[in-house]
Amino acid sequence: MIQDLLNGKHTLSLEVFPPKKDGEFESAHEILDRLGKLNPDFISVTYGAGGSRSGKTVEIASYIQNHLGIDALAHLTCVGSKKESILQIAEALSLQGIRHIMALRGDRPKDMTDEQFAQREFAHANELISFLKESTNHIMGGACYPEKHYECFSMESDLLHLKQKQDAGASFFISQMFFDNDFFYSFLEKARKKGITIPICAAIMPITAAKQLGTSVSLSGASVPKTLADLIATYGDHPEDMQKAGIDFAIRQIQDLQLNEVDGIHIYTMNKPLIAESIVNAIRS
Ligand code: FAD
């Protein structure tokens, strides 16, 4: 349960994304059923960039909450949204018994003009968090960045903005992916010194195919350490070996985080249950 995280228990959570096409919902349920058997403390569901297909996030989160009986954390971005539509989604989540929202600003959609961006109703995630806190009964999480957010000019300034999210009412944070745990430990130390006291989950992205470096990893801004770059250079052209090596790398990263007693481990499953099963079974054995 997410409440366990808030009560100081070390949690293990997973992240999924809604299927991109309607016909894929059946296989999404099969994926979720397998992930549910891993008994995570909660499963988060991403929100399409700019609010596209927001109903799908609600649908998948509802399956997790009501069919699997596992806490769902529904992501919600506000960059292109009006207060009214945010309230509609919060209400749809409440009706499904979903109490937890990962409150995000989101990236600026490509088709958003400078004028629209400048006049957006929610400037930053802290405003979304305050708004939800005042208008709903939801419990909010927020995003944090061990290597700082790409738009921010310094870690110092990014941490001040993070503190604003806590002050606005965020109850926990989940990090951006990182591949060198030292970035996370150093960030944690600085965040605690800045008065950020709420739980911070460390998020791990298993790199099981070389092409991930050109997509999700480069968008995240996470640095790629030499050990991971070497591994991709060695196994990148051999899919099965690459998958095994990427899983081993993620397991080692998580085991080190567990030894250092981080508040929670959050695994970006990429909707691949086999990868999640291999990792979770290894870190629990
Ligand atoms: P913010 O907290 O608003 O920060 C954005 C930038 O503005 C930062 O540089 C920050 O330093 C600065 N800033 C923040 N507050 C202020 C302020 N008050 N004044 C001035 N500057 C400020 N995207 C999706 O589209 N869907 C998802 O489901 C999704 N899930 C995510 C889950 C996690 C765990 C993470 C780490 C990211 C996720 N993202 C998702 C990506 C996220 O939307 C982008 O990283 C986005 O660019 C920033 O969102 P944010 O909520 O961190 O924004």
Overall structural domain count:
1
Give the DSSP E fraction (strand runs of 2 or more residues): 15-25%
Oligomer: single chain
CATH C-level name? Alpha Beta
Bound molecules: flavin-adenine dinucleotide
CATH topology: TIM Barrel
The count of strands amounts to 8
Mean pLDDT: 95
The coarse silhouette is: globular
Distance between the termini: 21 Å
What is the compact description of this entry?
This protein is of the alpha/beta class.
Kindly describe this structure.
By secondary structure, this protein is an alpha/beta fold. It has a single domain, classed as TIM Barrel, CATH 3.20.20. It has helices at 2-6, 25-37, 54-67, 83-95, 114-118, 125-135, 155-168, 181-193, 216-220, 226-235, 239-259, 273-284, and strands at residues 11-16, 42-45, 71-77, 100-104, 139-144, 170-175, 200-204, 264-268. The radius of gyration is 18 Å and the shape is globular. Flavin-adenine dinucleotide binds at residues 46-47, 49, 75, 77, 104-107, 124-126, 143, 149, 151-152, 158, 161, 164-165, 174, 176, 203.
List the SSEs and their pairings:
Layout: H1 2-6, E1 11-16, H2 25-37, E2 42-45, H3 54-67, E3 71-77, H4 83-95, E4 100-104, H5 114-118, H6 125-135, E5 139-144, H7 155-168, E6 170-175, H8 181-193, E7 200-204, H9 216-220, H10 226-235, H11 239-259, E8 264-268, H12 273-284
Parallel strand pairs: 1-2, 1-8, 2-3, 3-4, 4-5, 5-6, 6-7, 7-8
Helix pairs in contact: 6-7, 10-11, 11-12
Bound molecules: flavin-adenine dinucleotide.
Residues 46-47, 49, 75, 77, 104-107, 124-126, 143, 149, 151-152, 158, 161, 164-165, 174, 176, 203 line the site of flavin-adenine dinucleotide.
